[in-house]
Amino acid sequence: MKTVINGYLKIITFCLFAIVISSCGEDKTGQINNIERILYDGQTSFTILINNNGIITPKKIFVSEINNISFVIDVPDKDKMWAKFTACPVGTVDYQQLRTIEFHLHSTKDVNGSDHSYGRGIRKKINVID
Questions:
Q1: 3-state secondary structure of 96
Q2: What are the pLDDT digits (tens) for 4-16?
């Protein structure tokens, strides 16, 4: 009988642990400003170039699902592009793993392809077709 109770306690403990780990809590929302260029790395991965007072910084981002990526053409030519996102607040999120992202662009031509080397001679080139 004691073995059965210990077994049930282990199962209940495991289930509670799984629920805590998989639950994300309330989403963190944010905005990325001063986007100069967006490089599409493939499926749900982007590299964005951010201009902070003339210093261009690349930022690699991943989105959980391709259906959670959207593009809005609403930025005038004289203004900088931007994006708003939601992310799981668990861990440290520095625009890395996002739940959703909505890019605000001048035009669809602002999304560029990229070329990556994955080591061992494996390369992937993404071309954006107008």
A1: coil
A2: 555 555 666 554 4
